[in-house]
Each structure stands twice: as structure tokens, then as C-alpha cells.
């Protein structure tokens, strides 16, 4: 075999596991190296397979993966305990360029597990709010039981402008109910030309949220999205993440909407 | 060459093993045709095909080896046959309008066969007029008598001629021939009692052997035509099975009405996600009782008719 | 007296005759043939001329009118024998020349061979015959060979011509019913048939004719259905049947029904013995009766050449062909 | 109905019943009228039917019918008791002309129930033996159990030249065993030209017995047979008993063999 | 006219309903014929018949309305067809030698149909050569695949093409199409395990759907031809029933040998007192086990072949 | 160097080459076609010239030789990743001009689009191509339209003529294997096809082409079998599969196998969402890739015009027809 095999993953230790919901955990993995929010890794368990997972937290010696149980690999992952090992390769993709948002009114809209890839950005802004003209966070989940990062949300709620909503809930739920799009107009934008809007979530949620902001007069260029596709290889070979001439794994997953609007499946 | 295979097959041409070659299936409703049409078939086979014909399993001619791009030309040539056989066609010179509902087959019937109870080809044509053209995959066959030479019991609708034998005991000479033939060849519905013959109606399949064999015309046929309607027989990979009796002693008009009703039922229940779902499998899904409700809608059966309360199909299951 | 009357008037006369007569004629009965959607042409009581099938040969002969297929001889009330009521009406039967000749054969057996048959006699005394002339010979007819193509032995001759009917009234009694213009005409009769039958002279029939290989062909071919006998205008065999009524076992009846020498059981004796098991022997028994045995006993041939046996045989066995073979055999042996 | 109905039978009383075997009885019926041996009657029971039965004994005021149970009518007959009534019509047929046998060496060969029709002749000869040049009786039955007229046979055995044989019997049977044809040659015929041989029995027995006598040189003219056929009417109408131009019921059943030899079925 | 009906029918002419009219049944073994012969059929129909043809239930032409006394003339005219179709004939120009064993029917087979596993007409002709002419009443039919368009399960011998699918797992892309098609269209003999396909041999009916639908040729056919031999199906008045499987994965030569053996068996056991006894009823009388003994005499089956230990026929009983 | 050698000598050379090379060529494999009694023409290791199918287009492209349908990436021994052994022999592949052009497309993805693929690289480094010239254009070919009808990019050109073989040896290394008389000749190539494809210029493709009604036709027609992708010489998609060995659950492997953008599941994401459920959209995805998207990214068209997709489609969907429709659409919209 040739010297470097890009498909060969590296071992990583589970440092911590945080349970969010019945099916969603955050795994804190030992990792050193440069990683940007929005980038992803191929997380793998031999004999079970690989799957692309965005980093949901970045530390000096760790990265977080917030993983939902949705298949063979993730089912297996959820059996793992602190100290266990699994394999990763990455980081892949472009991630968010924090420079793009500096000194701007940043608005992040996240739907469900779309919160994971942007959590790194929130952390950064939360830590250095002065670098930005403002910050609004609009987060939506299906139901109260699906809410991720509850602890963080509590903290953010105290420090940031946060709107947390759920699509539906039982009658006794006291939080906001409704799709995120319903709350887009509640966000105050001071200067339309100096806004940076980051939208991540399920395809339909992203589509309608983008539309809502466009309707408010936000320019395409001031919107960023992160696309999720089936990325088998992460390195522009397997073809599954291609949208027209664009490979999500190479050219994304984060796109400025002025580019993204031309992408079609 | 870009070909919409669905249009080709709907037009009664086949997607064959040999790429870009097709085969025209000329169906002959009821199996009877004027000899003069053979000339046209021969012309197509020789000039457009490979010179061969295959007699199909459903009383038709399959003219093989036709280039797919000659379909329009062949459609123009076959037109007199389509007209001569009184095929319902929507646009002249465009060939067959649909090929989903299969050719209505018939044994030679009582124009020729002594055993037949009715003119099968004529009845076949009546049904043809009522249900063609149609894309739903339905197979109808008619046989003159329960010998069932056409094998109606492997069709969705099997129509078997029945005669209701009339007995004139004054003419009976107690020769016993009807009893013997009924016992040996048929179901043993006749017994001799006090030198005259008793017929057990529930055992009688209306085959007419008593009439055929009676030397004195003591047994004769009823003027009214009766039929046995057996349904949902089929061949196939999963569960070949015999059609089971649905209605005994049914009349012609009711059969046509039931078949037409069946198309309504298919329209309601067919699984359109499949390339084609055969009626038998639809009935498997909905159950016979639901089918029966649809089939008998507005059908006015005569008091003679005996309807099965339920049907449990058998057959071989793979 | 020969007259011409309109069909309409003829029908009126028939209507009047109906008071006194039951009128029987060959009728094409739709759907009543052996095969589906075919006619059966046989004798039936009629009321008008139009009901009569003049153009085709009847499948069954008129003998069933005077010799019913099933005839009750006695009603039994417990142990009492009671004869059936006498039919009150007379009979008028439309038929062809050969069939009139056939009546003579029936008379021979029922009235002259041993004691007179009272049941037959009773009918016979009341029956009058109406001759339908034959415009043409039908398939399988060989009346000319048998000399039965013509007859004068009728009460009325009828010749429908368009809307008119020509009548040759021979029975004075019938003059009272038909009134028309006198008109001379000849009754139709055929003078030649497609089929010609040569009947061997008695001396040409070998004593051991029963052993002739000729018959063996029929062992295989004949299915012993008896149709040839039942359609025959000259076959007269019957069997007796006693029954209890299913509804009341104390009562019952004795009948006679037609029998056929071709059908199994004809020769069965109490105890199980039977004769002529081979169908060819039955064929021989029948054929020789028609053109040899009967002649020996009564001096003329039994067969009248109507050809109905050939018309009816499901196996296409031809009686006339067999007789001609018999004739050829006689020639060979001479 | 016409005055005389030839099919109408007359009532007759059962005077006596003699059982021969399990299935064969002789019924002595009240009857006045001229009857000859060999003639037959149509015996009938209303609703059961008629059957032709030969007279097996003839007296001034009676006739005997020896009847085997072989069918519907005879089964029923066998239930009858003395004093009961059944119906008869006849006599039919020609019977035996005793004049034909006068002053001749009479040989009667009877097989089974064929003894019945000739029993009248035997009785006559037995009563007036002087009228005949000689008398031999050869009788065969299937088995000892089938022997008819046992009493009479005993008497005849004493008075007449009788050969009684059975086709087969158990080992302890002490009588003759074998077909009648085996015993034909045991009969002494003094004058071949003055012999009168009467043969009655089943068709095969008659055929071979006749042949045996012909072989011995007896002329056809000196042999008489009685044929049994299915006679429905007894009066030449029903046709069943016809053999070529001959009606058994009218012209027989007794035939001189010079005539009978030309009869074929 | 004195006609030996048995000779007429043996000569492939029918005793029809119309007295003194007959109908010639021109059989086409395997159903395939050169179009040029249509000319002869047309001539007979027009000059001797009533101008009509009926396509028979067994892949033939019935030319109706022929005068019985014209049989000899018609036999002379039909001769080129008999020769062209390679019918075994004893005396030239005398028509068909026997009509007891019925025309060997075949679906169009793999000359045309994508589903067929073999060239049905060719195999039909091989059988034809082996068993004709023959008076015993035997019906043989061949169908290319278990869809059974020719309805072999209503025949005495039903021959169904089977392919033994070969799986090259290296070529398999786990698209699942074979599993889906096998499950939906066929018997569900395939399952996906570890992204590759497992085939359950006992469930597999050899229909070839896996091969037909495999986009990568991972599934291919075996070079050897296999067949399913189903026996003693029938229509009829007393007990119409489906042919049941006798031998699976049998080869061509063994089938021919078994059919020939069956004729020996018929010769031994047929009830000659009946006009004709069908083979199925003979087997009913002797039992399957006795039949099997005769049928398999000197037959050397391959180890692949799977013989039924016993057969219990079902069907409808009247 | 262009030489002529006898077939016999050529085969000897092949034999010698066999020590160092695995030699692949299109072979007509009897009975291995989709339909019974048909051939499958596809790539197989060969030993002699006669095994090669020169006259017909192969059903599958040579890509399977260099990009195996199923390729193991890692063997797992418990939790250890182990790479497969390196193949020791080099590869010699007989193929046509269009297929050589196709190799460039494979290279583009596997070696230049992002990181190099080590597995592909390993094979690619050892493969030499033998050009089979095209004497004639086959049905559905449109290489001329795509400019792929001709190539100089081969190690050996081969032109069998009767019992002789003409060779154009471009790879010096191969000179050591083939010895014959020098002879000048030209490799065959086609200069025109029956099928001509007009490819819309990028600007002619509307931005909302995905909404064009054109694709809807294929919703019904396409059965999403993926054959067009699997026979395509330029399709390179794969998916990954991890398995346990059934015989030992502790061990297993990670493979990649070809994938098709037409087949269900291609876009399925963990969690259930998927894209392009309509078959017409998949058709559009494929077609535009071949003649638009790829070109936008890499500057030349992906499709090489071999026409195998048209040859293979069970629904007789023609790629080239679709491209021409796309072109016409572009014209209309101009």
C-alpha cells in the first residue's frame, strides 16, 4: 500500500459523554489539531462503519461530537463508555470562517441537531461578545424532549439573546411553541448591511428560514448555511455529496447563501 | 433510439430479448378469424419481421423480429385486421389502443364442437366490446363446456357453458345411457329410479352429456343459456391456482356487468406503485368479500343463480 | 276430391277439426336438438299450418304418435288392475309417404303377429293420415329402393303452394271440414334418391351370415346407443315396467316403453344370461330384420328407407351402406 | 278400452308351495284350462312386474310354476304364502306335442331349472310308460344344493332310467359328478331312427348336449329343444324373443332341432 | 355416407356439430411456423372450408366447415405444412397419422421473451420427434419460465424452465434489486446479508428475476439448462387440478425419457374398454408410486435433480 | 514503433507478458448475458488474442479492472485496521479510445479532486493500456460528438489483420516483448457516428433547469436500476460497507462498492432524509453531471460518448436523446 492512506482513521479516546435526550449524546474525544466549527469528521467503528459527524465543540485537546442514534454505527456508538476508543478521520470540509462574522450583527438560527455544528461558533461569540455588533440565537426543536444542550442553553439564555422554541408540546409546556420561522421577525436587526446570519438545520427548516430573512431584506451574501449530505468518503471521491459542480465535503458544508442558492440536489 | 417501452407494450408490441426488435401481438378475440386476414399477417412477417409467426398462448399471432422503428408502418398495415376483428380502437392506423386487458380467449364453441353449450366466440366478442380497450391486467376466457379445453380455470374470469337439462319422462326409455355417461364422464348427478331418471341439481354441472347421449330426446337443453363463472385462477411464480366457482347458473348479461364492475373495483384498489397488479392479487389484498360487494353491484341475478358465500382459493404456494 | 284453399281457411278448418281431433305434425322445436342451439324436428300437437316443418325431414318418426314412447297399460290400486281412460279425441297425423308405409309395418306386428294389441288397436282405429308430399329427396333417403316413395293410403294429401294449400281429400269424412275450389294436382313424391340400396334376395343371404366378417367392423364402431331404433319408423320393440308410486307405495302402474335391440340389456334374461354382447351382432340382428327376417315372415321388407337411422347415428354408421355391403357379399358368394 | 285386453292377467290362488332349494320353490296355482308341458305363462305381481314362467306341472285344476329367485318379481313371489293370490296370463307358446314322442325311445336331458318345463312330460311318460319305446332321463344341476324336485327324482329313480349328475360337489358327495354331456354316451339308444330327444336347459348346456347327440348319429329331426328368451309380452309384440324370423313366444319355445338349428340370436 | 369416426378423428379431423362437415386441426408443434404456410391454410379455408379459421386452444388452426368427403383432397393440400413443420407422418399425403397425443404447446420462449430460460419451440420439437405419432391421449406443454403463460399446470406434462443462478459476489453492489424483485415477483428466495445476497436453494424456483434485474451481472445463469417437471394437471368435468411438481432441476434428456417411459406405462395400464383414458386417470388408478417406478426406469438423473417422494393432487372435485 | 507480427508470435509475447502483467480484455462470456442464451461481453483476464471480443462493444466498461466493483479497504482483526496486500503484478488492459478517455475522468476524481485515493493510485501506477481501434461505430456511440473517438494516450495500439497483428508500440518498455517487422499503419478510429449529440453550452443551461418539464418524462420511464451508471466508463461513485465475518464476528472488513446515483438509497442520510426521490430528478442529476456540472468544475465533459448507457437501459431511455433535448431546450430559451 502507498505511504499515506487517507481512509485510515486514527484512534480517539472518549473523555466524557453527555446525554441530551434519549437518543442524543455528546462524546468528548481526545483530539489535538486545528478544527473549525462546521467541519466534520468521519467517525468509525470497525465492522460497523463510518459516518460523518460535525464537531459540536472544540477544545485544546478535545473535540465534541453530538451524535443522534439513527443507524448501525451510531447505535453502536451509544453503547460506548468513557475510556472506550473509537476511530476518526478528519477534519473535513471548510467550516465557518469566523472572520466573516467579525463586527457584524450575528444571528444564528439552528434547528434540532443543527445546533451541534454551530455550537462552536456560539461558544466563540459567547466568549468574546465584543468582537460582534450583536448576537441573536434562535433555536428550534421538535418537542421539549428533543432539546439539546440544555445546560448551555440555560447559560446562553442568561447571557445572549436567545429564542428557544419547540414545534409542539403538551399543554403544560411553558416555553415558546412554533416553528423557528415564526420567530424570525422577532429578531431585531439594526443594520441590514452588517448582518451575518447563520442557518443550520433540516433541509426544509433551512429553506423557509432563509426565505424569511430574504423577505426581511437580508442580502444573500449575509447569509450562511451548512448543508448536510451523505458523505461516505469525506474527500471528494464517493460522489454522494455532490450538488451540481460542488462537493459538499470539499467545498462545504458551509456555504454563503449567494453560492448555496444555486446548488440543487 | 429513445423508446417509451410503456407506450410500445400498450400498443401490443413486445419488448423482446433482442434489443431494438419488437414483436406484434395480433389478438383474435374468441379465436375465430376470416382466413383472408392471414395474407396481411404473412405480409408483415415477411416484409417487416423475420418471416416467422408464433401462435400465442392466448389465441393470437405474434409476429417476431420487427424493427422498433417500423411500428408505425406496421400499425398502418395491420389496420384491416383490427377493423375486421372489430377491435375497439381509439385512433385508426395507430394499432392497438391498449394491451393490459388480455385477449379474450374462447374454445371453438358450439359452432363446431358438439359438447359446447354456446357460441363462445360471439360471447367473447360481446365482452370484448364491453371492456376494451383497457390497461388493467385482466384475463377472460370462455369455454363451451366443463371439459374446459381453453383452461378457463387459469384465468381471472372463467366462463363455462352450462345447460339446464330438461327431462321429458314420457320420452325416456330407461336405457340408462345418460346415467352411465353422467357417472363415467361427469359428476354422477343422475340416478335411475322407477325406470326414470332423477337429476340432483346441486351435483349437476350442466355439461349436457345427458342431452348428447339421450337417444330419444328425453333430455333436452333449456332455451335459456346458463354459465358457471369461476374467478381468479392464475398461473405464476408465487401461487398458481385454479379459478374457483363464484356463481353457478348465471346469465350472460350478469357476467358482463360483473366484469365491468370488476374494473371499477380495480380502479379503486389497485396498487399503483407496482408496474401492474393483477386482479387476483388485489382480491387477495382486499379479501373476497369486499370484491364480491363491488362485483355484484347492481347485478340482478336470476333466482336460478347460486352465488358462493365465500371463496377460499388453494393452489400451489412457493 | 282435390281442392285449393287459402292457408287462412285451412287453419280455420284445422281449428274446427281440433274439436274432434288431436292434430300432430312434425315441428322444428328450437333449442331441443341433441347439440346446443339446434332444432329437434319431431311430432307435436299443432294448431296451425305454420307450425309444421315442411322443408326438412323430421328427426323422429311419427310412430311416437300412435305408439307412445311410454304407455301406461294398467294402473294399480293395491292389487287391482285398472286400464287407463280411453282417449276421447281422434288423431290426425301429418306425415310422409315412407312413414305411411311404416304404419303398415306397425300394424303387422301389433295387429297381426299373434293376438291384436288392444292399446295399439284403440289408437289405430281413430287415426287419420295426412300425406305431406316430398318435393325432394333428403340426405340418406332411399325410399325409391324400398318402394315406399309413393302412397295412396292417406285420408288427406296436402301440398302448400305459396299462400294456398292444395288438398287431396280421400276420406269423405274430411269433406265436411274443407271447402275450396276444386283443383286438380298431383301430390309430390320423389322418383329417385341419391342413395340407392340393393337388397340381397333371401337366397343370397348365407345361412351362416351371422359369422360373416362384415359385422365385426361394427363391434368397434357402434356405441349401442339405440338412436337408430328410436328414430326408426318401423322399429316396434318395447319392454314392460312395473312401478310403485313414490308418493304412495300401495299404488303404481304397469307401462310399456320403447326398447332397442342395440342397447345393452335388450336380451338380458332373469338370472343374468344375455345374447349378442358384441355390437356388430346387434347391428346384424337389426339389419337382417329390416331386409331379410321380416320379409321371410311377412313377405315384404320392414325397412321403408326413410334413412333416419343414418341421419341419427353419432358414429356415422350407415344402414344403407351396410345393406349394400350385404348385397355385395351375396354377389360374391353366388 | 276395447273389449278384451290380452295384457290383463287373471287372479290365481296359491294352493301349495314346495321348497326345492334356498331359492327355488314350486307354486301350485289354481287353474282350469288346457295347458301343455313346455308352455309358459306371464306371471305377475302388480307394481313388481311380469315374468315368463314355464309350467312345471299340470293338473285338472292346477298348474305348477317352479320359480327361482332371480329378480324383482320372483323375489317378491317367494314371500307369498299358500292362499295368497298372484296374477297370470297365458298359456303362451306351442309346448311339447306328446304325439311327436309316442312310441319312441324318449330321452329327456334337463339342466337345472330346465327340468321344470319338461317335468310335465316326465309326469306323462311316468304315468303311461307303455306309450313309449323307452325312456331315459338325464338331469344335471350345478351342485347337490341346487337339485330340484328331489322327491320326484327319488320316485323317478326307482321307476325310470335316471342319471342325475351335478357339475361339482364337496368330496363327501356320493352321487354322480360332471356335466350332463359326459353322460350322454351312457344312454343306450336302441334305434337311432326312433328316438325322441328333448333337451332343455341353459344355452351352453343345450348347445353341447345337442352336439353330443348329433355326434352319436341322432338326426336333427329327432331332437327337440325349448328355448328361453326374454319374453316381455308373450304375444309377439315386444320383439325381445325374436330369433331371425321366428318369435319364440309364438313359434316356440319348443322347437324341433331341424328348425332350431337355423335360429340364431 | 358411411364414415369411421375413429379414423377421421385419428386423422386430426373433428366430428363436428354440423353433420357431414368436419374441421381440420393443423397443429403447430411449439407454436412457431413460417408465415409462408398461412397461404396453404387460407386456400383450404376458402376452397374447402367456410372461409374461417379458429385458433385452437393448443396452438393450431382449426379449419372449419370442410365436407367430410373432401378429407383426402385436403390431406394432399396440407402436405407441405406437415412436412414443413416436421410432423412425424407414416404415409405422405394422408394427413396426420394420429391425433391422440395432443399438439405439444409452448410459449414463445427465449427467442423473443426476456423471461424465458430456453428455446421452448426447439425443445417442443425434440419431444414431438420422440413421441409422435401416438394414439394415447397425452398433453405436453412447455413454458419458458414459471410465469407459465402457456398454462403447463393444466397439462399431463408441464415443463417449466429453471435457471440455476450463479452469484459473483465481487460484482454485487448491494443495490438490493434482486432481493426486491425476488420478494415481490417471485418466491422470496433471496436475502441480503452483510451487503451480499444469500440464495435459499429450496425456495428458489429458478425464474431468473435476479439475473434479469441485476445491473452488474453479479447474477448470471448457469450454462446447463434445468427444468421443473410438473405432472398430471388437467381440466375436465370431475376433477380439474393443477399439475404437481414431480422433479425439480431435471435435465432435457431425462424429461424425454420419462415421457417415453410414460407411454410404456400407459400401454400396460390403460383401460381399453373406455373410448380413451387420459393418463392422469390411469395414474389415479394405479397410484403415483407405481407410475413413478415406470417413469423413472433407466432414467439417470443428475445429482441436482430433486424427485418428489410422493404426490397428492388436489383440485376441485365435482 | 509500428510493427507487424503473427498472431502466434503475438500470443507468445502475451504469454511472456503474463509473468509480469495480468492482461485484461473484453471477452464474450457465453450464457452470461442478462437474458438466457446470450453473451455478456465484459472484462476478464485473458491469455491469448482469440479470447478477445474485437467485433462488438463490451457491455461493461474496462473501469472495473482499475476500479473494482467491490474493493476491500481494510481488514479488521478485532479493532485493528489492516490494509490488503498489494497486488504484485502490473496490469495490461485492452480497450477502445473512448474508454481511454474515460480513464482520464477517473483520474480526475480519484487523483485530483481533493486528496489522492491511495487504492486507485496503486492500481493506476501499474496499468498500461492497449488501444483497440474502432473499425466502425457501434449503435448508440457518439464519441465523435464528445471528441473521444481518437486517442494517442496508449502504450500499445493493436490492429489484428487476418493472421497478422499490427502493433503501435508507444511504451518503450513493451518493445522488449514484441518483435516483428516494422510496418507503418494507422490505428482505426471512427470519424462519424450515427448518433450525433449537441451539447448545450454552459450558458444555455438555465439556472432553474431542475424545474424543466423535460425530466418529468423519466419519472415514469426510469426504473432506477442503475445499469446506466454501472456500465458507464466514467461513473465513479462508491459507497462504503463494514461487515462482520459470519464465521468469526471478531473479524471483518471495510469495503467500498460501486454506487449509482439512480438507485434508491443513494442520497439516504442517517435519520431518514433523502433527496431526488423522483426518478426524473436522478436522470437530471446524472445527465447534467455528464455534460454540464463536471465541465463546470473540471473544464471538459465527463461523458465520453460510449453509449453503453443507451445499450443497457431496459427501458430504452436514451441518454444521447436526452442531451439533445437539453440542447433544444437551451436553443428555445435563448
**Low-pLDDT regions of chain C:** none
What is the oligomer described by this structure?
Answer: heterohexamer
The secondary-structure class of chain A comes to alpha/beta
Strand arrangement across the biggest beta sheet of chain C: 3-2-6-7-8-9-1-10
Layout of secondary structure:
The complex is a heterohexamer, with 2 copies of chain A (265 residues), 2 copies of chain B (318 residues) and 2 copies of chain C (334 residues).
Chain A: E1 10-19, E2 24-30, E3 40-45, E4 49-58, E5 62-68, H1 72-77, E6 85-92, E7 105-111, H2 115-127, E8 134-141, H3 150-159, E9 161-166, E10 176-177, E11 195-200, H4 203-215, E12 223-226, E13 242-243, E14 246-247, H5 248-251, E15 254-256, H6 257-260
Parallel strand pairs in A: 7-8, 7-11, 8-9, 9-10, 11-12
Antiparallel strand pairs in A: 1-2, 1-6, 2-5, 3-4, 3-6, 4-5, 12-15, 13-14
Chain B: H1 5-10, E1 13-15, E2 21-27, E3 32-34, H2 38-47, E4 52-55, E5 60-67, H3 71-84, E6 105-106, H4 120-131, E7 140-143, E8 157-162, E9 166-167, H5 177-185, E10 190-193, E11 196-199, H6 209-213, E12 219-220, E13 226-231, E14 244-250, H7 252-269, H8 279-286, H9 288-295, E15 306-307
Parallel strand pairs in B: 6-7, 7-8
Antiparallel strand pairs in B: 1-2, 2-5, 4-5, 8-13, 9-12, 10-11, 13-14, 14-15
Helix pairs in contact in B: 4-7
Chain C: E1 2-6, H1 7-17, E2 21-29, E3 40-45, H2 63-66, E4 70-77, E5 80-82, E6 90-95, H3 97-112, H4 118-124, E7 127-132, H5 143-146, E8 156-161, E9 164-169, H6 172-175, E10 181-182, H7 216-221, H8 227-231, E11 238-245, E12 248-258, H9 279-298, H10 308-312, H11 319-333
Parallel strand pairs in C: 2-6, 6-7, 7-8
Antiparallel strand pairs in C: 1-9, 1-10, 2-3, 4-5, 4-12, 8-9, 11-12
Commentary on this structure:
The complex is a heterohexamer, with two copies of chain A (265 residues), two copies of chain B (318 residues) and two copies of chain C (334 residues). With 265 residues, chain A is an alpha/beta fold. Chain A has two domains: 10-92, Elongation Factor Tu (Ef-tu), domain 3; 98-228 and 245-260, Rossmann fold (3-Layer(aba) Sandwich). Chain A has helices at residues 72-77, 115-127, 150-159, 203-215, 248-251, 257-260, and strands at 10-19, 24-30, 40-45, 49-58, 62-68, 85-92, 105-111, 134-141, 161-166, 176-177, 195-200, 223-226, 242-243, 246-247, 254-256. The longest helix of chain A is centred in the middle third of the chain and has 13 residues, at 115-127. With 318 residues, chain B is of the alpha+beta class. In chain B, 28% of the residues lie in helices and 20% in strands. Chain B has helices at 5-10, 38-47, 71-84, 120-131, 177-185, 209-213, 252-269, 279-286, 288-295; strands at residues 13-15, 21-27, 32-34, 52-55, 60-67, 105-106, 140-143, 157-162, 166-167, 190-193, 196-199, 219-220, 226-231, 244-250, 306-307. The longest helix of chain B is centred in the last third of the chain and has 18 residues, at 252-269. Chain B is globular. Chain C has two domains: 2-68 and 84-182, no CATH class; 202-235 and 268-333, no CATH class. Chain C contains eleven helices and twelve strands. In chain C, the strands form two sheets. Chain C has an eight-stranded mixed beta sheet with strand order 3-2-6-7-8-9-1-10. In chain C, 48% of the residues are buried. Strand 3 (32-34) of chain B pairs antiparallel with strand 4 (52-55) of chain E, so a sheet runs across the interface.
Amino acid at each position: 500500500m502507498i505511504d499515506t492512506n487517507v481512509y485510515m482513521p486514527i484512534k480517539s479516546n472518549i473523555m466524557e459523554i453527555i446525554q441530551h435526550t434519549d437518543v442524543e449524546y455528546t462524546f468528548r474525544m481526545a483530539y489535538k489539531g486545528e478544527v473549525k466549527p462546521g467541519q466534520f469528521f468521519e467517525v468509525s467503528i470497525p465492522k460497523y462503519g463510518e459516518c460523518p459527524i460535525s464537531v459540536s465543540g472544540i477544545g485544546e485537546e478535545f473535540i465534541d461530537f453530538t451524535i443522534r442514534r439513527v443507524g448501525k454505527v451510531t447505535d453502536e456508538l451509544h453503547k460506548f463508555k468513557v475510556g472506550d476508543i473509537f476511530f476518526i478521520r478528519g477534519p473535513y470540509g471548510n467550516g465557518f470562517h469566523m472572520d466573516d462574522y467579525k463586527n457584524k450583527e450575528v444571528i444564528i438560527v439552528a434547528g434540532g441537531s443543527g445546533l451541534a455544528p454551530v455550537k462552536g461558533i456560539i461558544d466563540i461569540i459567547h466568549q468574546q461578545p465584543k468582537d460582534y455588533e450583536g448576537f441573536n440565537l434562535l433555536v428550534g426543536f421538535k418537542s421539549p424532549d428533543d432539546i439539546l444542550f440544555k445546560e448551555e442553553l440555560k447559560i446562553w439564555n442568561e447571557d445572549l439573546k436567545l429564542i428557544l422554541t419547540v414545534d409542539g408540546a403538551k399543554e403544560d409546556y411553558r416555553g415558546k411553541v412554533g416553528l423557528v420561522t415564526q420567530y424570525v421577525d422577532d429578531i431585531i436587526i439594526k443594520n441590514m448591511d452588517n448582518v451575518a446570519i447563520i442557518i443550520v438545520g433540516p433541509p426544509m427548516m433551512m429553506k423557509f428560514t432563509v426565505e424569511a430573512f430574504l423577505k426581511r431584506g437580508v442580502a444573500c451574501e449575509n447569509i450562511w448555511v451548512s448543508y448536510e449530505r451523505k458523505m461516505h468518503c469525506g474527500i471528494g471521491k464517493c460522489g454522494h455529496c455532490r450538488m451540481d459542480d460542488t462537493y459538499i465535503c470539499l467545498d462545504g458544508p458551509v456555504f454563503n447563501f449567494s453560492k448555496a442558492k444555486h446548488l440543487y440536489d | 433510439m429513445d423508446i417509451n417501452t410503456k407506450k410500445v407494450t400498450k400498443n401490443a408490441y413486445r419488448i423482446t430479448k433482442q434489443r431494438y426488435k419488437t414483436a406484434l401481438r395480433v389478438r383474435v378475440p374468441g379465436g375465430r378469424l376470416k382466413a383472408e386476414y392471414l395474407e396481411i399477417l404473412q405480409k408483415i412477417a415477411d416484409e417487416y419481421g423475420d418471416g416467422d409467426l408464433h401462435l400465442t398462448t392466448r389465441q393470437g399471432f405474434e409476429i417476431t423480429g420487427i424493427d422498433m422503428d417500423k411500428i408505425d408502418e406496421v400499425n398502418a398495415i395491420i389496420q384491416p385486421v383490427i377493423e375486421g376483428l372489430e377491435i375497439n380502437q381509439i385512433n385508426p392506423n395507430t394499432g392497438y389502443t391498449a394491451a393490459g386487458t388480455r385477449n379474450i380467449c374462447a374454445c371453438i364453441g358450439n359452432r363446431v364442437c358438439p359438447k359446447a353449450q354456446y357460441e363462445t366466440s360471439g360471447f367473447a366478442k360481446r365482452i370484448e366490446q364491453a371492456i376494451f380497450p383497457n390497461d388493467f391486467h385482466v384475463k377472460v376466457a370462455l369455454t363451451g363446456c366443463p371439459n374446459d379445453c381453453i383452461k378457463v380455470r387459469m384465468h381471472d374470469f372463467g366462463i363455462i357453458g352450462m345447460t339446464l337439462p330438461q327431462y321429458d319422462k314420457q320420452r325416456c326409455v330407461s336405457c340408462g345411457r345418460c346415467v352411465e355417461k353422467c357417472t363415467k364422464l361427469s359428476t354422477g348427478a343422475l340416478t335411475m329410479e322407477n325406470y326414470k331418471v332423477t337429476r340432483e341439481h346441486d351435483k349437476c354441472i350442466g355439461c349436457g352429456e345427458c342431452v348428447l347421449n339421450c337417444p330419444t330426446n328425453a333430455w333436452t337443453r333449456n332455451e335459456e343459456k346458463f354459465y358457471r363463472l369461476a374467478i381468479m385462477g392464475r398461473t405464476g411464480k408465487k401461487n398458481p391456482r385454479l379459478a374457483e366457482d363464484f356463481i353457478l347458473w348465471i346469465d350472460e348479461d350478469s357476467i358482463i356487468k360483473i366484469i365491468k364492475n370488476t374494473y371499477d373495483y380495480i380502479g379503486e384498489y389497485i396498487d399503483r406503485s407496482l408496474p401492474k397488479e393483477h386482479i387476483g392479487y388485489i382480491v387477495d389484498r382486499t379479501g373476497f368479500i369486499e370484491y364480491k360487494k363491488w362485483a355484484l353491484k347492481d347485478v340482478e341475478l336470476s333466482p336460478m343463480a347460486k352465488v358462493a358465500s365465500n371463496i377460499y382459493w388453494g393452489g400451489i404456494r412457493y | 276430391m282435390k281442392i285449393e284453399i287459402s292457408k287462412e281457411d285451412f287453419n280455420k278448418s284445422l281449428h274446427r277439426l281440433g274439436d274432434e281431433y288431436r292434430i300432430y305434425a312434425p315441428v322444428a322445436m328450437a333449442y331441443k336438438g341433441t347439440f346446443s342451439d339446434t332444432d329437434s324436428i319431431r311430432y307435436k300437437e299443432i294448431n296451425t299450418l305454420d307450425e309444421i316443418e315442411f322443408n326438412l325431414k323430421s328427426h323422429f318418426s311419427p310412430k311416437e304418435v300412435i305408439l307412445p314412447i311410454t304407455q301406461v297399460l294398467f294402473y294399480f290400486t293395491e292389487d287391482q288392475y285398472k286400464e287407463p281412460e280411453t282417449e276421447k279425441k281422434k288423431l290426425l297425423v301429418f306425415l310422409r309417404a315412407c312413414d305411411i308405409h311404416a304404419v303398415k309395418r306397425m300394424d303387422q306386428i301389433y295387429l297381426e303377429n299373434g293376438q291384436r294389441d288392444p292399446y295399439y288397436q284403440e289408437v289405430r282405429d281413430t287415426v287419420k293420415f295426412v300425406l305431406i308430399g316430398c318435393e325432394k329427396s333428403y340426405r340418406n333417403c332411399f325410399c325409391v329402393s324400398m318402394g315406399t316413395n309413393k302412397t295412396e293410403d292417406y285420408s288427406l294429401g296436402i301440398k302448400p303452394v305459396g299462400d294456398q294449400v292444395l288438398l287431396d281429400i280421400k276420406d269423405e269424412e274430411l269433406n265436411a271440414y274443407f271447402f275450396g275450389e276444386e283443383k286438380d294436382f298431383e301430390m309430390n313424391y320423389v322418383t329417385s334418391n341419391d342413395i340407392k340400396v340393393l337388397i340381397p334376395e333371401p337366397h343370397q343371404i348365407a345361412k351362416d351370415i351371422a359369422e360373416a366378417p362384415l359385422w365385426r367392423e361394427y363391434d368397434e364402431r357402434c356405441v349401442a346407443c339405440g338412436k337408430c331404433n328410436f328414430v326408426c319408423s318401423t322399429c316396434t320393440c318395447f319392454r314392460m315396467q312395473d312401478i310403485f308410486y313414490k308418493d304412495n307405495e300401495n299404488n303404481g302402474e304397469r307401462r310399456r316403453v320403447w326398447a332397442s335391440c342395440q342397447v345393452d340389456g335388450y336380451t338380458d334374461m332373469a338370472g343374468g344370461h344375455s345374447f349378442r354382447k358384441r355390437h356388430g351382432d346387434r347391428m346384424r340382428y337389426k339389419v337382417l330384420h329390416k331386409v331379410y327376417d321380416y320379409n321371410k315372415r311377412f313377405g315384404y321388407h320392414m325397412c321403408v328407407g326413410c334413412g333416419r337411422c343414418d341421419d341419427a347415428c353419432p358414429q356415422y354408421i350407415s344402414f344403407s351402406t351396410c345393406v349394400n355391403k350385404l348385397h355385395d357379399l351375396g354377389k360374391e358368394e353366388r
